[in-house]
Structure formats: C-alpha cells, structure tokens
Amino acid sequence: MNELQLNASSTVRGVPVKKGAAYHRRKIFWCYVFVLPQILMFLAFTLYPIVMSYVYSFYRWNGVGELQHFVGFANFLETIKDTYFWNAFKNNFIFMGVMVAVQVPLALIIALILNASWLKGSAFYRAIYFLPVVTTTAVVGIVMRFIFGAYKGLVNEILISLGLLDKPIDWLGSTDTALLIILLVGVWKTFGMKMIYWLAGLQSLPKDIFEAAKVDGANVFQTFRMITVPLLLPVGSVILLLSAVNALHVFDLVKSMTEGGPAFSTDMVDVYIYRYAFGGGGEARVGFASAAGIWYGIAVLIISMGLGLLVKLTGGKSKSH
Hints:
The chain is mainly alpha-helical. 71% of the residues lie in helices and 4% in strands. It has helices at residues 3-7, 21-56, 74-81, 83-114, 122-134, 137-147, 154-161, 178-203, 207-215, 220-247, 251-257, 269-277, 286-320, and strands spanning 9-12, 15-18, 59-60, 69-70. The strands form two sheets. The chain has a two-stranded antiparallel sheet with strand order 1-2. It has a two-stranded antiparallel ribbon with strand order 3-4. Residues 1-9 have low confidence and may be disordered.
C-alpha cells in the first residue's frame, strides 16, 4: 500500500476502510468554507483600506463624494513641510525609546525574580503585573485623567496631604509634565506583556546548565552574565523588536488622556492622522491624512526591517555558539 493509499484509508473497529478522492475533495471544500470568512474580512477591513489609502493620498478629498481633485504628490510634500507632523513624529520616537529603554530591562529583572524557585505565590504576582495588559486602554486613559486631574485628582490629593505640594498641579494640562505622565502610564500599561515574554524565555532555558554552574561554584551574578544573558540573547532581540514596533502605536492611550495636547506636546502620528482624517477643528482632509500615514508606515517598516536584521544576526550568533 503506497503513501496515497495510506492517507486515504482509516480503520473502523480495526477494519481498514478506504476513502476515495471525493472524500478528500469534500474535506478540502469545507476547509475553504471555514477559512472564507477570515479571508473576506481581511480583504474588506485590511487590504482594501490599505490600497485605498494610497489612492486617497493623491487627491484632495474630504471623505464625502467622488474623487475629483487629483493633486499628485502635493499631499506628501505638504506633510514633509508641516512642523506639527515632525513634532508628532518626534513624540512617537521618544515614547518608543522610553518603552524600550525602561520596560525591557525592568521587565527582565522582575521576570528573574518571579522565575526564582524560592519565591512563594509567584502566580499571584504574575497576575497582578499582567492585569493592566488585559484592561481596555481607553478605560485606562479615562481613569488616569481623573487620577492626574488638577481638581481633586488622587495624585494631587496624596502629595498635598504629605506636604510635598502647596497647590494642585495640572499634570495633563502642562506642557512640562503631560508627556511624562503619558510615558509613565504607557510603561505601566504594557509592562506585564514584556514580563511574560521574558518569563517564557527563562523557562525555556535548559536547567542542567545552571545546575552544572552551581556545582562549579558560580555565584548568581556570574551565572546571569555568563549563561543567562547569552542564552536569552535571541529571545531578547525578539522582545526588543516587538516592544519597539508596538510602542509606535499609542493612539488609544493618547486620545483618551490628552488628545495630543496641551499645545501638541503629547501629539503622536496616529492622533495627527486621525485629526486630519476626521476634521478635528476643521474640514476633513482624508488625502492629506493618508499621505501622513504612508510616510509613517514607511518609517515603521524601515525600523522593523532594521530590528528584524538584528534578530537574525543575534539568532545566527546564538546558533554558532
């Protein structure tokens, strides 16, 4: 019996039963039937909007009616000349830099502690750290507006009661503190996901290597520097890639907390695009917003490719060792 016959047969109570080509055609047909809704949703809500955003970027269009005013690359050139676009661009990369520089190493430290065999109740602590991740970002933003509010905000009330402040501070209404608060909330909100990534990496490491190092007399810091770090390097590069790319999209958090203000000090490219696409404070400019989105998409693509190359190189070095 050849391989095709083996694949086309089964047993019923130990008796072989052959299944013909019609059975396999029906099986393939139903596979496509179940996959079809996902394919249609991808075409309608992902691929079509992406393609049309490129089309809209060449027109002056407010989102209503037919496309009539073809402007070529005018929207792209105007975007490049707009200082507010570069301000939002800068804020996005500040946010990404802080998320990577603060979250990634801090999450590794917490993951090492939670992965320690001597820690009791580690599952409870993991759940506490991960809880903000599963909380809706928009809800978090609204709650944080009350917590950091100038009038009877929880933070101001605590600081005043401790004698650290004489009068309330409008944390989200000042250009000096608004972005800082966004960064703090962003670190807290997504910290648990980076911690889970590190925990998964730590728990995948072979335990016999660590036992051998302990027998050889290596202390905790030597084990971490000489064994844990080299073995975690491929996982760490992937975490770095995911952290950087995810940090470049913070629309929901900024929109719900500050809407890009005050004085555009917390403006991000996502919020910038939304403002022009839906006419925040003026007429909608879908074509201009599409051009800004394409520029930003190119920047994210370049960053992702660079970090992806880093992941590949890191993985290659790990295999060579």
